[in-house]
Design goal:
The complex is a heterodimer of chains A (63) and B (338). Chain A has 63 residues and is mostly helical. Chain A has a domain of 42 residues. Chain A is 65% helix and 0% strand. The C terminus of chain A is likely disordered. Chain B is an alpha/beta fold and 338 residues long. The chains are: A mainly alpha (63), B alpha/beta (338).
């Protein structure tokens, strides 16, 4: 999955319009790669379709 | 027009532009909120020759100072720049017109670029102070996407997310975000992550954005927004539960989308009502009262006497229509009497 993410990031960087932006996005991709890998991993694990009720008293202590 | 008061913190004339942050400052809970005790004469980019006056009270809201009696109840309006009154004088806004119609104390907590998640947090944190009997949430249907945008106008926002147990959680704003350079650093990551997610969905808002083909209106891009609607689903439930627990009546007011005025979609796969349909489906699911302004706003709109400015914000006439519909709705529900 990390390899796929890295390839996508490079594609993303290369898709930028100017050379300067491509370079900037390559650097940002490398800097943010660990954070993005963790975020994407969490997204994949949880999916986007909860099956049970999440609202209720349990979330109110957050505030 | 509201005349300036003396003794306020700052007085100056400014040109308001899109994404202007002159009225906002860092807020540890919400990301940003209005600067208290600020007053300025503003010119708006779509009406450069017609300045309007903006004055924030000590709570940072574009409203009169709030001093309530011990058991005094209010009607509280909250929303984005339409509620704040972009381009219009304070006493022309729908909240002020509604106050005249109802004879009730109507408060305005609108702020530019406010997302529904911030509305939710603001209600949880600030509403009790204003003792509302009725809360009106103004929601511009296109602006529902703000719950996905965690870096707005140079401010990092609190945001909701789902944890690995599929529970709704709140990511609070880092304390470091009170420093501008930290906000910029955190914001750079948030903006990059959002842009990358959009890239993976085949969305390019940076180089090829056209409001007429905004991806939120495209049927074939709906999948990208599924998570957003899921978040909205849960946020609405929190707002509803808060109001139910505190005996507050809740009403959503949905505005007409700019693209719907005089334009036909370029394709059958493009629907300017798409975010509205999905949002109203969520409101109905949670049995939250709402009033849709679209038909009335479109009917009242003519090229000679429009109800919106060219950028889509409602003008003085639009605020009047908005207030009339809200008043009729509140009356028909028996929530207010004339």
């Amino acid at each position: 999955m990390k390899k796929e993410l890295f390839i996508d990031l490079m594609r993303f960087a290369i898709s930028q319009v100017t050379t300067w932006e491509r370079l900037r996005y390559i650097v940002l991709s490398l800097v943010f790669f660990p954070l993005l890998a963790r975020a994407m991993s969490a997204d994949t694990m949880r999916g986007h379709s909860p099956t049970s009720s999440e609202a209720g008293d349990d979330i109110y202590p957050l505030f | 027009m509201n005349e300036p008061t003396s003794g306020m913190a700052k007085k100056s004339k400014i040109q308001l532009t899109t994404g202007d942050t002159a009225f906002y400052r860092f807020d540890a809970q919400l990301g940003f909120w209005g600067v208290p005790n600020l007053e300025r004469e503003v010119t708006y980019d779509v009406r450069p020759n017609e300045p309007f006056y903006v004055r924030h009270n000590s709570d940072g809201n574009r409203d009169a100072e709030v001093i309530l009696g011990p058991s005094e109840k209010t009607i509280l309006c909250i929303g984005g720049s339409h509620t704040w009154g972009g381009g219009v004088q304070q006493d022309s806004r729908y909240s002020e017109v509604l106050a005249k119609r109802t004879g009730r104390r109507v408060l305005n907590l609108g702020h530019c670029s406010l997302g529904l998640d911030q509305v939710c947090l603001a209600l949880l944190q600030k509403a009790a102070k204003y003792n509302p009997e009725i809360i009106i949430v103004e929601q511009y249907p296109w602006a529902v996407h703000r719950v996905m945008n965690t870096f707005v106008n140079g401010f990092v926002r609190s945001y909701f997310y789902f944890n690995s147990q599929e529970e709704l959680k709140l990511q609070k704003v880092s304390r470091l975000a009170k420093y501008r350079w930290c906000r910029r650093l955190i914001g750079t990551y948030y903006a990059f992550r959002k842009e990358f997610q959009e890239f993976r969905s085949g969305i390019d808002l940076k180089n090829h954005y056209n409001p007429l083909t905004d991806p939120i209106f495209l049927y074939w891009k709906t999948r990208h927004y599924d998570r957003m609607y899921l978040l909205l689903d849960h946020i609405l439930r929190v707002i509803r539960d808060y109001c139910n627990q505190h005996g507050i009546k809740l009403l959503f007011g949905l505005g007409a989308i700019q693209q719907q005025f005089g334009r036909k979609p370029l394709s059958g796969l493009l629907d300017y009502d798409l975010p509205r349909k999905r949002f109203t489906a969520l409101l109905e699911k949670h049995r939250i009262s709402y009033v849709d302004m679209t038909a009335a706003m479109l009917e009242s709109h003519t090229p000679q006497a429009p109800v919106i400015f060219p950028d889509g914000h409602i003008n003085t006439k639009g605020h009047g229509v908005f207030a009339d519909i809200l008043f009729s709705e509140l009356q028909s529900r028996g929530w207010v009497t004339k």
